Amino acid sequence: MKNLLQFEFRKLTRKKSFYICTTVSFALLFLMTLLTEIIFSITQETYQAFDILLDGVNSGSFTLLAGIFAILFMCEDYSRQTVKNIYAKGYSHTSVYFAKLIATLVAASAMYLALELFAFALGALAYGVGEVESAKYFAVLAVQYVAAMAEVLFAFFIASVLCKNGSSIATYVLSPIAASLVLSLLELLLKLKKINLNNYWVTSFLGDLSLSVSTERLLECLFGSLIYIAVFVFVGMFFNKRIKL
Q1: Which phi-psi region, left, alpha or beta, contains residue 163 (left: φ > 0; alpha: ψ -120 to 50)?
Q2: Does any domain span residue 40?
Q3: pTM surpassing 0.85?
Q4: What is the CA radius of gyration of the chain?
């Protein structure tokens, strides 16, 4: 396992897609901050670095780009058939799967941290550092990270099953629309009037995580994300082991 991890991390440092996705996420955050500055100059609203720290990942660009990277990283050895050489050396499907999973999580976490630091620096330069008004801020920030990793692992799960770049990326990008349609249809069929199933899909959590979120919803987002993470990891492993190369 140690050798596999070293192999995956060596590949990770050479992956141009990692640096490209991170740079694009920086650029999109910069444009969002610029647009916010224009709007707030008109509305006279106040903003600070700690606010943009929450909004930086919440914009949606991170999960999209980190998810695409996760797919490209997971599918590389399968699309090139080089994974056969790894199996030939005696490594099990499970070991290969978890080595790729760990490397993907480390890369996504590094991208997340870099984006947050960039967001804070950008916010401090544009609006000033400001201050945190309640401990709830750090709870929301922590749950944001868990929810973001759940979305990245959803992309990893798709790649683990399909093992092809094109179909995996298309599925990941279109999945929020497809899930919304399917869940809305289920609501109609089951005649659910008080429950919105879309609120419990993995991609719905991050958008609700702001300082105005209720404690109940915050806990729903946390435990829902953790459940999805476990499901994506172990169901992905189950299907990945059955792939015929």
Answers
A1: left
A2: yes
A3: yes
A4: 19
Place of tokens 């192999």: 7
- Does 76 map to a domain? yes
Determine, yes or no, domain membership for 111: yes
pLDDT by position in tens, the chain (length 245): 778 888 888 888 888 999 999 999 888 888 887 887 777 667 666 667 777 777 777 765 889 999 999 999 999 888 888 888 888 888 888 999 999 999 999 999 999 999 988 888 887 887 777 777 778 888 999 999 999 999 999 999 999 999 999 999 999 999 989 999 998 898 888 878 788 888 899 999 988 888 889 999 999 999 999 999 999 999 999 998 888 76
Q: How many domains does the chain have?
A: 1
Q: What residues make up the domain containing 145?
A: 2-240
Residue 245 lies in a domain: no
> How many CB atoms neighbour CB 119 within 10 A?
27
